[in-house]
Design brief:
Elements: H1 8-12, H2 18-26, H3 29-44, H4 46-49, E1 51-55, E2 58-62, H5 72-92, H6 97-107, H7 112-127, H8 130-141, E3 147-150, E4 166-170, E5 175-179, E6 187-188, E7 199-208, E8 211-221, E9 234-238, E10 254-258, E11 261-264, E12 273-275, E13 281-283, H9 293-323, E14 325-326, E15 336-337, H10 342-377, H11 384-412, H12 424-431, H13 441-459, H14 475-480, H15 494-516, H16 522-528, H17 530-553, H18 562-580, H19 582-587, H20 593-610, H21 614-619, H22 625-628, H23 639-647, H24 661-677
Helix pairs in contact: 2-3, 3-6, 5-6, 7-8, 7-9, 9-10, 9-11, 10-11, 10-17, 10-18, 11-12, 11-13, 11-17, 13-15, 13-17, 15-17, 17-18, 18-20
Bound molecules: ligand L3CPSR6R and flavin-adenine dinucleotide.
Length: 678
């Protein structure tokens, strides 16, 4: 049957070339082509897009929208099947690393393979010696071993230095003895650990000759490569069902305990420090912080994933807001599309703009990460602190805004957004742990704050700040300048926006530094002022995102109307933040309340400008219906018949009379009948 495009009228309104925007969104023509090809490949192959379950009727297939109805054990087994099938496809078709990553992404089910590729391999790469890389990476790349990242324990996650697992060197046998001395030292949370991983990078306190040298990484085999049973001394399992139906429950987050498990000395990751045969601890000339390098890698990757998740929610909410109508019908005509309500626009369009903003900052962060890693290889560690602060801060900002944004999109879809078939509840449940894993978002902002306080304290020494904190070099100007905005449209100037964000960030950091200096004990001061420090850190991170969006616009961006649309989105992102954090800009004395009102006036005008382009800007994400997994977000906008159809597929609708009627409902009804007769 031919499908009708209920959103065709919306698409006709676009003032830009959607195909060109798809390329900007993807990052390059090549990236677009790979994503486009792989997303369609996944959508069109039932072995990748469906969940198959053996039931009394034989093998039954379930679509993605239906997966929240399925029991965890079945879902998990299907995820194993899909991972194995994907892996075979990758090998058979000799997919490149980029294509393999896209395949994993579009299959869209958290799985052990994410930990294996996203954390286990990066940890070996970052912390292993050349010999260790040579031995372990080929095994890992061929999946002859499957690994996870076992850092967090039941009692400690954020405080890595507080981990309790021990790795005690035994010089007699040239081995480490890995042990879990307490219940709270049980490894707890690692993805892929519960049921799948054969190996783990285990973080443990290194002890030689009775001396504790702090945390180090060790490669430990957990399960037999023959029958997959846990090796002697190892207790391992899944930690239980997590938030939401389906959602993150396709992942086997695990618990792990060691009872004096012995591993050879060369399984300590030795790039940062070594233990010699006679038990001597030798620190390399690389900084100890490189032990945390894999977290930096993953945090950086999570920023691009944030734009992906937010764009999905925004795509669903935008299309549905154009389909949905409420109120205002005149003379029997159609009601108003809810996307035309200014309140709907003021909630939706900043999220649309944020998706683009996060995409561009993610692109830049990937470049920055690559640049710093190349320097590290050449033993230049000067930019490592900035990379740590920036990845921590931008991961924190983007994942918090994305999780909140998904929930806002659910509300923007009214009641239907609450149905699992909208795709939004599951997207939220899968996404929200990103605010916690790879570093709790508040803990990460406090790391940014430490970096900022250090920067401010070094300004007087004449050290010139560079990179993302170069703006602090203009401290004298930024501390006393005032906005020169005289009318709403002055806020469209990138220079006006940039100075506002720089002045706000500088003043908030300086105010914190001044407050800190009043404490005799700086650590006590840091604890006391932590809420203000977190806000200063956020102001700095927002400045980075805004400035990277502005920098993107300074590039040559071809395509009809593309640059104009991006300029509108950039201003929406910045002015929305200015409006939301109005208090910061006022209190720090950079703007007057009148200038704040101008910003809001300009913001409303920008919403009107983006309105005709909204559906097409969401189309430019190029999400397939399969990837969206949402009836509300269907490309053709055919929402109502599909919602109606889907309701009848719910297991409760398998019979007109529900199970339990005879035991629980009939007696009640009978009782009422008897009462009525009385
Ligand atoms: C085919 C290809 C496919 C590719 C697939 C890719 C897939 C990607 C998908 C991603 C999937 C994601 C799955 C997620 C799974 C989740 C995993 C996890 O959650 S793993 C566990 C993560 N745990 C954490 O993040 C813990 C957070 N805590 C910390 O990081 C630290 O404890 C702390 C930074 C909060 C504190 O560190 P600590 O040493 O205790 O204290 P200090 O604050 O004193 O720091 C000392 C010093 O070090 C600097 N520092 C800290 N961290 C770093 C770092 N990472 N890098 C560089 N430098 C660092 C800090 O700034 C201090 O510096 P100083 O100069 O002394 O001030
Ligand atoms: C889905 C999921 C997957 C995960 N996968 C892995 C994995 O593969 N490998 C792995 O090792 N770990 C993994 N983790 C664990 C994860 O990294 C930790 O949960 C995370 O680092 C937070 O640590 P925590 O649980 O100890 O939180 P806590 O630190 O206990 O946080 C609790 C509260 O205390 C606050 N808090 C903590 N410290 C401070 C402070 N200094 N100042 C102010 N407030 C503070 C936090 O903001 C938070 O509000 C995963 C977690 C989840 C949810």
């Amino acid at each position: 049957m031919e499908s009708i495009d209920y959103l065709a009228e919306e698409r006709k309104k676009a003032e830009f070339n959607v195909d060109e925007m798809k390329i900007v969104w993807a990052g390059s023509r090549r990236a677009f082509e790979v994503s486009d090809y792989i997303s369609k490949l996944v959508a069109d192959d039932p072995d990748l897009s469906f969940i198959f379950i053996e039931c009394h009727r034989g093998i039954q297939g379930f679509s993605k929208e239906e997966r929240t109805m399925l029991p965890r054990k079945e879902l998990f087994k299907n995820t194993l099947r899909k991972s194995a099938y994907s892996w075979k496809h990758i090998i058979d078709h000799q997919l490149s690393e980029e294509e393999a990553e896209r395949l994993r992404y579009f299959v869209d089910e958290p799985a052990f393979i994410d930990s294996h590729l996203g954390v286990f391999i990066p940890a070996i790469k970052g912390q292993g010696t050349k010999e260790q890389l040579k031995k372990w990476l080929p095994l890992a790349y061929k999946m002859q071993i499957i690994g996870c990242y076992a850092q967090t324990e039941l009692g400690h996650g954020s405080n890595v230095q507080g981990l309790e697992t021990t790795a005690t060197f035994d010089p007699r046998t040239d081995e480490f003895v890995i042990h879990s001395p307490t219940l709270t030292s049980s490894k707890w949370w690692p993805g892929g650990l519960g049921k799948v991983s054969t190996h783990a990078i285990v973080y443990a306190r290194l002890i030689t000759d009775g001396k504790d040298h702090g945390i180090n990484g060790f490669i430990v085999q957990l399960r037999s490569l023959e029958d997959h049973k846990p090796l002697p001394g190892i207790t391992v399992g899944d930690i239980g069902t997590k938030f939401g139906n389906g959602a993150y429950n396709t992942m086997d987050n695990g618990v792990l305990r060691f009872d004096h498990v012995r591993i050879p000395r060369d399984q300590m990751l030795m790039r940062v420090a070594q233990v010699t045969k006679d038990g001597k601890y030798v620190q390399s000339d690389v900084p100890r912080q490189l032990l945390y390098e894999s977290m930096v890698y993953t945090r950086q990757a999570l920023v691009t994933y944030a734009s992906g998740a937010l764009s999905r929610a925004v795509c669903i909410a935008t299309r549905y807001s154009a389909v949905r109508r409420q109120f205002g019908s005149q003379n029997g005509g159609q009601e108003i599309q809810v996307i035309d309500y200014k309140t709907q626009q003021s909630r939706l369009f900043p999220l649309l703009a944020s998706a683009y903003a996060f995409r561009f900052v993610g692109e830049w962060l990937k470049w920055f990460y690559t640049d710093v890693t190349q320097r590290l290889q050449a033993n230049d560690f000067s930019t490592l602190p900035e990379l740590h602060a920036t990845t921590a801060g931008i991961k924190s900002l983007t994942t918090t805004a994305t999780a909140d944004g998904i929930e806002e999109c659910r509300k923007l879809c009214g009641g239907h957004g609450y149905l699992c078939s909208s795709g939004l509840p599951e997207l939220y449940a899968v996404y929200v742990p990103a605010c916690t894993f790879e570093g709790d978002n508040v803990v990460l902002l406090l790391q940014v704050a430490r970096f900022l306080m250090k920067t401010v304290s070094q300004l007087s020494s004449g050290k010139k700040p560079t990179g993302t904190i170069a703006y602090m070099g203009k401290i004298e100007h930024l501390m006393q300048c005032r906005s020169d905005v005289e009318q709403a449209k002055d806020w469209l100037k990138p220079s006006a926006i940039l100075e506002a964000f720089e002045a706000r960030a500088t003043r908030m950091s300086v105010a914190c530094a001044q407050s800190l200096s009043k404490f005799d004990n700086p650590e006590e001061g840091f604890q006391e002022l932590a809420p203000d420090l977190v806000e200063a850190a956020l102001a700095h991170c927002q400045l980075i995102v805004v400035s990277k969006f502005i920098e993107k616009l300074q590039q040559d961006i071809p395509g009809e109307g593309i640059k104009q649309q991006l300029e509108v989105l950039c201003c929406i992102y910045a002015l929305f933040l200015l409006h939301k954090h109005h208090g910061d800009f006022l209190v720090t004395g950079y703007i007057t309340s009148k200038q704040g009102l101008f910003a809001n006036e300009q913001l409303r005008a920008l919403y009107t400008q983006v309105r005709p382009n909204a559906v097409s800007l969401a189309d430019a994400f190029n999400h397939t219906d399969h990837f969206l997994g949402s009836i509300l977000g269907r490309y053709d906008g055919n929402v109502y018949p599909k919602l109606y159809e889907a309701a009848w597929k719910d297991p409760l609708n398998e019979s007109d009379v529900p199970d339990g009627f005879d035991e629980y409902i009939r007696p009640l009804l009978k009782q009422q009948l008897q009462t009525a007769r009385l």
